[in-house]
């Protein structure tokens, strides 16, 4: 162990730790869970610290040597080399100050080493005076949420959604001529094509992509520059603009300074908005996965209108049983994301006056939701949707047997007479076509035209 100091005095810190006294106090104060900030979030924090150092150098606020040390050390945070030094629990101070100081101390001590000094020698690089210059936890932590969310959306979730949407659209085209019975209230309904059904699924995913993209401009707006309460106290007037320009140069994104720092720091409305879009996606995934699970149910005693890829044995006791495990995985992941949204919604209500004090749990749940959905959508596409096959004969059999085909008779013979045909068909275990022919409700040629299953899948009388 070594001795480091902070404003509260001396603290024993592990010799192997790059962090200092303030972080060690937080380690001892918050032994709550095994949840830690994600690699993506710590990368975002590193990007902000490097951007700040570059901005402060350009403004003449720190000397070249200190800036170089911070930039080199911060780059090691960005590339993950120092990720094991970020040791704090998610359930900590509500502003995330402990994690901001974790970053400041790690970067300062690593910079000190790079400059030839000994860890803890703050005369070379100070975690507050140099690494945290022109910043506060209250603008850095929410900014890192936005930077990490943007990277997660752009690098993981949106590509995975695009893959899933393409897979579903491909199946919609492949199944375009597969006529089957529609179902409403889990009861037989008028005919539909399997392709039409899958086109609806593809549209759900496409709509989710569009919703997320509409939220991204707000995600790109950062709190950086507001410092403690949004006023920008203790920061150079040009700092935020320069730091964000440096951030954009490193990431390739178009982050901007907050239009109103008081809104950006006192609320987490954007996190709530984005989480709401993720929840909507989760609901869509549950619907799609559950439908596919039902459509593939069987193989002998249920619908079995589609064949799902066989990916693993389904039972430890029933030989040869194969279950829709990928669909079930999707549904559980989506349920978890809905829980993430509840945590975010609850946490965002605690934006008291100038600061939300549940930022770490918002960060954790938002970024976890993005990562879970990204992996889920990619896996769903690769291991389930792309391998689906239609059982064409079964689909056509159900469409022909559906009593709801009497619907197309109603404009010709009236609702009540069509209902009589359907009831007769059900009672005598016949198709509507057979019952209508026996009841002679229409001439044969007109009856064949009216009961054309393919025509029923399109608008018309």
What's a concise summary of this model?
This protein is mainly alpha-helical and 461 residues long. Helices cover 59% and strands 8% of the residues. It folds into three domains: 2-133, Fumarase/aspartase (N-terminal domain) (Fumarase C, Chain B, domain 1); 139-225 and 252-392, Up-down Bundle (Fumarase C, Chain A, domain 2); 402-456, Ribonucleotide Reductase Protein R1, domain 1.
Task: Name some characteristics of this structure.
two-stranded antiparallel sheet, 8% strand, Ribonucleotide Reductase Protein R1, domain 1, single chain, 461 residues, 18 helices, 10 strands, mainly alpha, Fumarase C, Chain B, domain 1, 3 domains, Fumarase C, Chain A, domain 2
Q: Which CATH class of the largest domain?
A: Mainly Alpha
The CATH architecture designation of the largest domain is Up-down Bundle
* Biggest sheet statistics: 2 strands, antiparallel
Helix content: 55-70%
CATH superfamily descriptor of the largest domain: Fumarase/aspartase (Central domain)
Secondary-structure-based class equals mainly alpha
Can you tell me the number of structural domains? 3
What is the distance, rounded to the nearest whole angstrom, between the alpha carbons of the first and last residues? 84 Å
Strand order of the largest sheet: 1-2
| Helix and strand element order | EEHHHHHHEEHEHEHHEHEEHEHHHHHH
Indicate the low-confidence ranges by residue numbers: none
Q: How many individual β-strands?
A: 10
């Amino acid at each position: 162990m070594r001795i480091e100091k902070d404003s509260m005095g001396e603290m024993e810190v592990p010799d192997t730790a790059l962090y200092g006294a303030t972080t060690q106090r937080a380690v001892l104060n918050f032994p709550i869970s095994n949840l830690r900030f994600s690699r993506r979030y710590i990368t975002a924090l590193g990007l902000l610290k490097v951007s700040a150092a570059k901005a402060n150098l350009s403004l003449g606020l720190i000397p070249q040597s200190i800036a170089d040390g911070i930039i080199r050390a911060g780059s090691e945070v960005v590339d993950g080399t120092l990720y094991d030094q970020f040791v704090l629990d998610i359930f900590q101070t509500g502003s995330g100050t402990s994690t901001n100081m974790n970053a400041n101390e790690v970067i300062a001590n690593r910079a000190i080493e790079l400059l030839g000094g000994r860890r803890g020698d703050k005369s070379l690089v100070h975690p507050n005076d140099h690494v945290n210059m022109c910043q506060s936890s209250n603008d850095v932590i929410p900014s890192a949420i936005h930077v990490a969310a943007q990277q997660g959306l752009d690098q993981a979730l949106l590509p995975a959604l695009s893959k899933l949407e393409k897979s579903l659209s491909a199946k919609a085209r492949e199944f375009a001529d597969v006529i089957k019975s529609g179902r409403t209230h889990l009861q037989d309904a008028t005919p539909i094509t399997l392709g039409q059904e899958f086109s609806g699924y593809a549209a759900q995913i496409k709509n989710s992509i569009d919703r997320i993209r509409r939220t991204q401009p707000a995600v790109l707006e950062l709190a950086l520059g507001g410092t403690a309460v949004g006023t920008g106290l203790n920061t150079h007037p040009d700092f935020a603009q320069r730091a964000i320009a440096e951030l954009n140069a490193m990431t390739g994104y178009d982050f901007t300074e907050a239009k109103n720092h008081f809104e950006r720091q006192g609320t987490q409305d954007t996190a709530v908005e984005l989480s709401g879009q993720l929840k909507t996606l989760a609901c869509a995934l549950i619907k799609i996965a559950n439908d596919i699970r039902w459509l593939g149910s069987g193989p002998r005693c249920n619908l079995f209108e589609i064949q799902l890829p066989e990916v693993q044995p389904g039972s430890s006791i029933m030989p040869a049983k194969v279950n829709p495990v990928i669909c079930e995985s999707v549904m559980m992941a989506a349920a978890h994301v809905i829980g993430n949204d509840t945590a975010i919604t609850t946490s965002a209500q605690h934006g008291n006056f100038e600061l939300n004090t549940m930022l770490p749990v918002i960060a954790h749940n938002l970024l976890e939701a993005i990562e879970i959905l990204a992996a889920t959508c990619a896996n769903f596409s690769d291991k389930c949707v792309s391998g689906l096959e239609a059982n064409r004969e079964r689909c056509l059999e159900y469409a022909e047997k559906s009593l709801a085909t009497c619907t197309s008779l109603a404009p010709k013979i009236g609702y009540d007479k069509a209902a009589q045909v359907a009831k007769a068909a059900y009672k005598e275990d016949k198709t509507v076509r057979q019952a209508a022919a026996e009841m002679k409700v229409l001439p044969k040629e007109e009856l064949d035209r009216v009961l054309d299953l393919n025509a029923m899948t399109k608008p018309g009388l």
